[in-house]
Amino acid sequence: MSTLTEQEWKRVQPLLKNIDVRRQEAAYNRLVKGETLVKAGEPYGYSRQDVNLIVKAVMKWYEKLNSMPDKPQPPKGWVAVEFFVPRNHVVDVRRVVEAMYPQPKPESEPAAKEKGPKSSRERSAKPGARAPAARSSKPPRGPRQPAR
Question: Does residue 43 have a pLDDT over 60?
Answer without folding.
Answer: yes
